[in-house]
Amino acid sequence: MPSPGAGPVHEVDTLVVGAGQAGLATSYWLSRHGVEHQLLEQRPELGGAWQDRWDSFYLNTPNFSFLLPELSYDGPEPEAFLPRDEVIGLFRDYAARINAPVRLGTEVTRAGVVDGRFAVETNQGRWHARNVVLANGAFQRPRIPASAAILPRHIRQLHSHDYRNARQLPDGAVLVVGTGQSGGQITEDLLDAGREVHLAVSTCPEAPRRYRGQDIFYWILQVNLHGPGVGINGLQADQLPSPAARFMCNPLISGNGGGHSIHLRDLGRRGVRLHGRFEGTDDGALVFSDDLPARLALVEAGFRERLGRMADAYIAAAGIDAPPAEPTPTPTDDWLPAGSGARLNLAAEGVTSVIWCTGYGLDFGFLDIPVLDQWNYPRHSRGVTEVPGLYAVGLPWLTKHLSATLSVVGDDAEFVAEHIAGR
Q1: C-beta atoms surrounding 368 within 10 Å
Q2: Rounded to the nearest 5°, which phi and psi values hold at 21?
Q3: Coil vs helix vs strand at 130
Q4: SS3 for 14?
């Protein structure tokens, strides 16, 4: 492998870091504007972060959510869900169709500014560019809490990033930490494999798969795209209560089995042992927060208090004739599964594995340009950063709630490409 400092310096107008959905959408629009560009992708194959999902993974968003330029769905099953490998293949076909100029296996190790141009170093040589687009996504650096280091050495630990199936794990019970979409879906995968599962509950909200006659994502998408036109702005980035809210949980749903809701109490009825937030270990036992009843109530109320209310407001403001919301099922009093509690003895319960479903952090460690805020997020306006020629696409809440998704990333990429073409 050549040294980053060896060989000639490649010259290009615009470098795009990352060739996932954000990078490919940006490439499409740059080509339409006649802008010379190059995509640098650190992975050996195309398919983006979808390649890091487990074997039984299905997209959580229905087929109608494919709204990339020249990649909208017009088939017979708009409300069906694609499995992981079909999603990967779709993006590889898309890259070929739009003739995206991608260099695979090329990791950016440093990007700075020299003499008014961007100097970019990679494991495959150096580049100079007039513009750089950060399109390396929100799923780059798996987050694992520091408490992982104090677990006994014999415990097998994986982040959801590396989990593929239950066969990776030794025999015995499994603790899943986190109840976002990954935590809920991996718990179901383990149950289907016949494993005993303990689940540390976070505060990500449950949501109905269908709401008022539509898949719930239909309403989320409409509020994102058309809400401002009728005065419903809650899913726009400039309405966030704080910058930290850009990293809030997505609703707990699944695309498996034709799409369904995931309810934590239902998992408990299937045998999952529910616990509070994981806090560490004490004398051979795992310790959890002692607030499971309140935590479950918060999870169950989260959708009604935010997304459900916003969908209702949009339906009313837009004058849509939608059926009324179904009554929210009342939990069976304060039912909790037996064996749940604030302490879990590893040896007595036979726990041999932990899967950290604790999300990802942004990774701009290569960026030698002072443009990141305290949350490691580029300071920007509609993807145009405060550094001339430096852009960002495909980050959560770049302009709205769905900015990092297949449905909206193409719009943000179009705006950035227009800005680059206009320089």
Answers
A1: 12
A2: -65, -35
A3: strand
A4: strand
Cα(5)–Cα(423) distance, integer angstroms: 29
Q: Please, which residues have CB within 8 angstroms of residue 219's CB and are 6 or more apart in sequence? A: 211, 212, 307, 311, 314, 315
**Distance in angstroms (rounded) separating the CA atoms of residues 306 and 47:** 33
pLDDT of residue 29: 98
CA 281 to chain centre: 29
pLDDT tens, position by position, 366-379:
999 999 999 999 99
Paired residues of 188 in beta bridges: none
pLDDT in tens, 199-216: 999 999 999 999 999 999
CA-based nearest residue to 198, from 79, 345, 329, 53 = 345
Domain residue spans in the chain? 9-140+362-421, 143-356
Residue 183: exposed, middle, or buried by beta-carbon count in 10 A (0-12, 13-18, 19+)? buried
User: Looking at residues 219-237, what average pLDDT do you find?
Assistant: 97
Q: Is the dihedral of CA 245, 393, 145, 294 positive or negative?
A: positive
This prediction's pTM: 0.94
CATH number of 9-140+362-421: 3.50.50.60
Pick the closest to residue 261 from 337, 203, 188, 176 (CA basis). 188
End-to-end CA separation in angstroms for the chain: 36
Residue type, 307: L
26 exposure class (CB count in 10 Å sphere: 0-12, 13-18, 19+)? buried
Give the position of tokens 């994986």. Answer: 158
In single-letter form, the type of residue at position 107 comes to E
Partners of residue 113 on adjacent β-strands: 118
